[in-house]
Amino acid sequence: MAIVTAFVYLLAAVLFIVGLKFLSSPRGARRGNQIAALGMLVAIAWTVILLGGTFTPAGIVICVVGVLVGALVGTVGARRVRMTAMPQMVALFNGVGGGAAALVAISELLKLAGSRPDFQTGLPSAFAIVVGGISFAGSAIAFAKLQELMTGTPLTYPGQQLVNGVLAVAIVVLAALLLTVTGQPVLLTALLVLALLLGVAFVLPIGGADMPVVISLLNAFTGLAVAASGFVLNNFALIVAGTLVGASGTLLTKLMSDAMGRSIGNVLFGAFGQVQPGAAGAVEAGDRNVRAGSPDDIGTMLAYSRSVVIVPGYGLAVAQAQHAVRELADLLEKRGVEVQYAIHPVAGRMPGHMNVLLAEANVPYEQLKEMDEVNGQFRNTDVTLVVGANDVVNPAARSSPGSPIYGMPILNVDESKNVVFLKRSMRPGFAGIDNELLYDPKTIMLFGDAKDSLNRLVAAVKAA
User: Fold this and answer.
1) Contact (CB, 8 A) for 52 and 279
2) Which strand (E) or helix (H) includes residue 445?
3) Arithmetic mean of pLDDT, 372-382
4) DSSP string spanning 228-288?
């Protein structure tokens, strides 16, 4: 039986790895999800079969109810969630995974009836409780910020780092007591509560603009907690799955912070987006004029262009305008216009947000161009259409050393021959600074809801 169990878990691990490989490309992402889900189904089914003889009738009922409730909530939630709320759902999934890993570790320690656990069990258990608790609480705060249940600006207070440090030291002390003295439930409860408090204190001072990086980091935390719980249960499938999630989440966090031109430490502790009146790099619009255009004029310009680059941002997701932008692109292509989409690594509210959004509208994968690939093409682009993006195209990142976004790699939209901005108003982006590109003589503003504006442009192109 042990050999069969090892083989089944190895098969599940292989399916996880193959699924992750397919996720590296938008074209294979759907299949990758299906393969990884099959791997998890194999692991869960065999675990139930393996342990079925040890379950009490009450245990069987609890397992069945848990599976049914989880499947129902997950299926309904995933199908009904709006694209604008996808980051919130990912944050919740992260948190649930971390919380589950922490509870598994606590349940295993409770079996010891307060006795001191051996090092092999105690260390991964303590790790799973702490990291899983931080992931759960931190993800809950990230969800609240993204859902606008609380302010998205950083929440800071005097002595904040000192408080975090005290919490961290207290957690280390309790973990040491668990490993060397006792495993009493009161100690486990205190350890979990402190981990939850640290998770809240960890995410509160991080602004909404940095949520993609935070979500990715918390995802890595959840993976590590799951891997630790795999060591506690001696479950090979959990160890592999958790390690894959932890490693990929860590790498993605590093890549995204690099894409923002900032260190991970600055993202986590820099309180980016905090309101600071008079901060260097802030630009007041004053009485400066912007050039506003009509849908008919802009539609004609697009229809008679040779090349158009579309830059999607969070505003596109808010307006649910992905299908309208695809319709516009199709019309332009029928007229012989070359259309591409420039994707900034941190556009939106989670890693890959724009890719997922455009994939829903069946935008051809070949038209999605990453920043490094498309930046050299802007100087030869007739029109760049910016839909709901702001900070990721702000030239202040290159030209204003005092700006909060200085040093962040951006899309070189300002090198285009013409720029069209679709915005609701002149409000700045998450960084809280004005965008000089809006006042450039070659920039045309089209104010209004992105979906409505795109529909009007579609009508204008048809009539051109």
Assistant:
1) no
2) strand 443-447
3) 93
4) HHHHHHT-HHHHHHHHHHHHHHHHHHHHHHHHTTS-HHHHHHS-TT---TT-TT----TT-
Q: Give the residues across from 144 on adjacent strands.
A: none
What are the structure tokens assigned to 85, written together?
A: 């709320």
Q: Has 382 been annotated as catalytic?
A: no
CA distance 170 to 201: 14
Contacts 24+ apart (CB under 8 A), 243-246: 244/16, 244/17, 244/20, 245/219, 245/220, 246/220, 246/221
134-174 residue pLDDT tens: 999 999 998 888 887 887 777 878 888 899 899 999 999 99
For residue 283, how many C-alpha atoms fall within 13 Å in the half-sphere facing its CB?
Answer: 24
- Model confidence over 26-41: pLDDT tens digits? 678 889 999 999 998 8
Q: How far apart are CA 152 and CA 208, in angstroms?
A: 5
In order of 129, 141, 194, 326, 355, the CA distances from 97 in angstroms are 12, 15, 18, 35, 24
pTM of the predicted model as reported, rounded to 2 decimal places: 0.78
CA angle, residues 27, 363, 390, in degrees to nearest 5:
110
Give the pair of three-digit tokens for residue 366: 């070949």
In angstroms, the CA 347 to CA 358 distance is: 12
DSSP label of 377? G
Among candidate residues 391, 414, 434, 440, the one labeled active-site is 391
